[in-house]
């Protein structure tokens, strides 16, 4: 076995580890509201989220994976691009681990995209990047939380009006059950969008190694690509099952106080936002989306109920994710370039 293929195998393993970290880091957002409203215990909530993360592969067409795999213009069969993918993953993982340690709900998705792009630029400059793919993602940095916020506000107002004659006890009882459905929908969205980003990275890696054509489409019916879909969804589900409790605390308990009806509206609005983005092949941050939805729902009662200081801390961490992960990946690539004979 050649050195290149050894690196390919190790990079696939690293990509799946990243996917598990993504599940550990980001999927906490899928259960934040259902835990903070005490509808499910943390243990049961992560099992619930992991299951629906996994079955997302049977529902969504992998358009997001196609977008991610084409961020960098890869020359098929050029082993140097294998190291571009490797460096991009390292940059993303370093950022993910750091922000997890700090308890910040930043975006694993943007870390991966920033890392991949940063490594590509370090190798062949800005011309190797398909900027339209980057801008589609960058546009949704503000749009995904704003759409989530707007939907959360509108759905919450509609629910207030529809159930205005109900007793608070009856409303609470109904939406405790309803939140199981909304949490499942949000987890489906998370699994459908986030797992596909790692699939796209693996496709890019195999194109660089000459194992796949640049125009290869992921499908469960194609034995060449079915293993990519299955392994990524399993890795994300396992990562979700491990949980990320410090981030759950920030998202579900520090932003605003939630009741089951609030959790239902936040998760439903977040789910529909991600469904829309996934359908159009746009990699979005589930963290951004659920945070915006929680703020939108919380603002219907009283704006002062939202902990704006926590929200600003989260926003600042979002803004630095892509440039920091890109810089880290570029440094890793330059280090590889210094010591590896392929360059």
Describe, in plain words, how this protein is organized in 3D:
- The protein is mainly alpha-helical.
- The protein has one domain.
- It is 76% helix and 0% strand.
- It has helices at residues 3-26, 28-36, 42-55, 63-69, 80-102, 108-124, 131-162, 168-208, 223-242, 245-254, 260-279, 286-298, 308-339.
- Helix 2 (28-36) packs antiparallel against helix 11.
- The model has no long low-confidence stretch (mean pLDDT 85).
Topology:
Blueprint (H helix, E strand, L loop, with lengths): L2 H24 L1 H9 L5 H14 L7 H7 L10 H23 L5 H17 L6 H32 L5 H41 L14 H20 L2 H10 L5 H20 L6 H13 L9 H32 L4
Helix pairs in contact: 1-5, 1-8, 1-9, 2-3, 2-8, 2-10, 2-11, 3-8, 3-9, 4-8, 5-6, 5-8, 5-13, 6-8, 6-13, 7-11, 7-12, 8-9, 8-11, 11-12
Give a short synopsis of this structure.
This protein is mostly helical. It has helices at 3-26, 28-36, 42-55, 63-69, 80-102, 108-124, 131-162, 168-208, 223-242, 245-254, 260-279, 286-298, 308-339.
CA distance, first residue to last residue: 20 Å
Number of helices: 13
Classify the beta-strand content into a percent band: under 5%
Unreliable segments of 5+ consecutive residues: none
- Derived from helix and strand composition plus strand pairing, the structural class reads mainly alpha
Q: Give the proportion of residues in helices.
A: over 70%
Features:
343 residues, mainly alpha, 13 helices, 0% strand
């Amino acid at each position: 076995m050649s050195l290149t293929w050894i690196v390919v195998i190790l990079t696939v393993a690293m990509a799946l580890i990243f996917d598990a970290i993504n599940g550990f880091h980001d999927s906490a957002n899928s259960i934040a509201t259902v835990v903070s409203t005490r509808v499910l215990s943390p243990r049961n909530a992560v099992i619930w989220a992991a299951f629906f993360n996994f079955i997302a592969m049977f529902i969504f067409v992998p358009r997001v994976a196609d977008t991610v795999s084409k961020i960098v213009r890869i020359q098929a069969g050029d082993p140097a691009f294998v190291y571009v993918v490797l460096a991009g993953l390292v940059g993303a993982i370093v950022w993910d681990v750091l922000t997890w340690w700090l308890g910040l709900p930043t975006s694993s998705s943007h870390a991966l995209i920033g890392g991949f792009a940063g490594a590509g630029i370090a190798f062949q400059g800005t011309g190797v990047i398909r900027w339209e793919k980057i801008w589609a993602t960058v546009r949704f940095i503000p749009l995904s939380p704003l759409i989530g916020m707007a939907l959360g506000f509108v759905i919450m107002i509609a629910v207030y009006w529809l159930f205005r004659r109900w007793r608070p006890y009856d409303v609470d009882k109904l939406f405790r059950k309803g939140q199981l459905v909304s949490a499942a929908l949000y987890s489906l969205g998370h699994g459908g969008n986030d797992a596909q980003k790692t699939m796209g990275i693996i496709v890019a890696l195999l194109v660089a190694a000459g194992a796949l054509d640049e125009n290869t489409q992921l499908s469960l019916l194609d034995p060449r690509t079915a293993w990519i879909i299955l392994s990524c969804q399993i890795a994300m589900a396992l990562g979700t099952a491990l949980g990320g409790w410090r981030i759950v605390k920030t998202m579900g308990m520090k932003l605003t106080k939630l009741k089951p009806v609030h959790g239902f509206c936040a998760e439903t609005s977040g789910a529909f936002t991600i469904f829309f983005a996934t359908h159009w092949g746009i990699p979005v941050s589930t963290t951004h989306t659920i945070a915006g939805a929680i703020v939108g729902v919380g603002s219907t009662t009283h704006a002062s109920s939202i902990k704006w200081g926590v929200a600003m801390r989260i926003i600042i961490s979002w803004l630095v994710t892509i440039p920091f992960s890109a810089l880290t990946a570029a440094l890793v690539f330059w280090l590889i370039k210094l010591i590896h004979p392929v360059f």
